[in-house]
TrEMBL record:
Belongs to the glutamine synthetase family. Transmembrane segments: none annotated. This is Glutamine synthetase type III. One of its GO terms (biological process) is glutamine biosynthetic process. It comes from Fibrisoma montanum.
Amino acid sequence: MSNFRFKALEIAQSRQAIAVAPPAERVGDYYGINTFNKEVMRALLSPEAYLRITEAIETGGKVDRDIADEVAGAMKSWAISKGATHYTHWFQPLTGETAEKHDAFFDITVDGKAIEKFKGGALVQQEPDASSFPSGGLRNTFEARGYTGWDPSSPAFLMDNGAGGKTLCIPSVFISYTGEALDYKTPLLKSLAALDKAATAVGQYFDRNIDKVTATLGPEQEYFLVDRALFYARPDLVLAGRTVFGHSPARGQQLEDHYFGSIPPRVNAFMVDFEFEAMKLGMPVRTRHNEVAPGQFEVAPTFEEVNLAIDHNALLMDLMEKVAEKHNFKVLFHEKPFAGINGSGKHNNWSMGTNTGVNLLAPSTKPKESLRFLTFLTNVVKAVHDNADLLRASIASAGNEHRLGANEAPPAIVSVFLGETLTKALEDLETKNEISLNKGDNVYYKLGLNRIPSLMRDNTDRNRTSPFAFTGNKFEFRAVGGSANSASTMTVLNSIVADQLTKFKQDLDVRLANGEKKELAIVDILKQYYRASKRILFEGNGYSEEWVEEAARRGLSNIKSSPEALAVYVKPESLALFERTGVMGHAEVESRYEIELEKYIKKVQIESRVIGDLAMNHVVSTALKYQNKLAETARALVDLGMNAEAEPLKDLLREISTRVIVIKQKVEAMTETRKKANNLGNTVATARMYATEVKDFFEVIRYEVDKLELIIDDEDWPLVKYREMLFVK
Ligand code: ADP
Ligand code: MG
């Protein structure tokens, strides 16, 4: 094994950057060439079909069968002309991976001739064998059927299969035979529709021309890169996606010299390569840089409509994994691949835009627009305040559990950062009670609202420790995990804001019916909302121990474990919210809860097995061999009469023995606990036991193993060390 480690290191060190040539000189010449986009459709479809399909894309409406037939025909000839041999519905089942099942365009006619076939029916709907995807009890065993259905709002694209041609991928939803959602996309689309409806209704108080509100998302993706050879020499990375052992290198991220530093050439080649491929697929990747931890990087696209942004993020992750192979890297999206250094998140930058071209979360210089801005801002704050636990549930996973509250990531406490200026504006709103609207815009002056814009422009205050931060013209939800599909968190955020805006409209309509003046009523409602939700606002250091105490005093939740966080999904008030907003029925939410718990159990179970296996078969066995060497040396010293000199060796032998005994005992006890957990016969109880009693062994075992790493001869140590994985470039 140690030979394996040194062989891997040799391979890793001998690597060179692989040169990458741009597909064309100008981005415009290759941007989106692998997508069936509007331009292609305009060229290939009849004007009638083009109009109907673009309408359907913009309004989310249905596509008639005859139009679907025409689109299918155009897609087929476009795809085949670009080298595609197969097509697939591309969807996002609740496993967290993307799924595809390739069918050939090619078919045989009754008289044995080969033809290329792809009709509207196959475009609109398909029936993959769904029985191997999680359904959380939504699908009876005898009813293994599930359907995928075309989502016209996300353009079809071509994926290169490596050596074997290309596949036309058609973004799709995935539902059960009885119509329940089995994927991430279906509830997301429903939440976007709910938000559109609620936000448009509120927008209309300010501008009658607002008839559509689109939620926008720019996901900043963090990741680690590890050399491929080193990756395969770490069974824990291969099996669990994170290292379960490994002593921190003498030099970690304390120098903070990696962040925004120059990008190593091999890494740069990889980045350039996947960015080219991403742009060909119509993804607006824009920024790349080193992240805080050594070996950690980030890619961020320009924001897009949420559904599209999420498809693009899922596709980008797939693409990065593929391109990494070519550059002999492995991409780690895991939230915490290495202990003691930063983990990876996916910052979800979110806002709402209108058909009139207004970003509803952008402060304005005009007082009237400021009221609109404050209305949306305050409603978002209220929504987050009232549903903080649900938002926390939406980011719960085995991986993210290592990150949240772990001192260098946003805490598990949900709080909102607004910055000094906005906090002040809301304070003014609350404290100035007597307001007369007679003097027109003066009221805004009295409210101090006109101060927002001028100050906002140079308002650069930033708080990197807040999980939910206002960053100038959008909110940034930073607690989302690096490996997550953002859809679950975006579904919750859209739903709670939609629900809150609907309540706001109801509150306002009651007052308007009572003859109150609109602006006055709005200001008063916002004042009440602010008062009711201000305890969630926090401007200080979110990573500090003081905040944990302060948050407890304020009565804010601090849900650390995933099973506990996930349980919020099935609380009566959560079920009611999803039902009210039309996003998910009870059975759908309950099945999701079940699936998330099962995923959690499996992940922790795998980690626990890997820990046991590595500890016993790699670490303990190596320790015993090293003990033999030491013992021989000690014996030789004693034979030579050098008793005093033999003492330190005996101490070492004792230390190794003690640690080996602890490891062995703990591994055995962990296995027993796992058995107990597995036999509880109740997913909730099993998950809780894994989160507590099973996981409690992880740190204890790791502590002993990491100590042994410091003692045992480097030549003998079987696992690639942190310094080797993180600093090889
Ligand atoms: P930062 O200072 O946090 O790096 P950037 O301006 O680089 O901010 O933006 C980070 C991400 O936020 C990018 O993906 C960007 O496109 C996205 N973003 C900017 N404006 C919006 C918006 N209105 N809605 C959603 N995302 C946005
Ligand atoms: Mg950011």
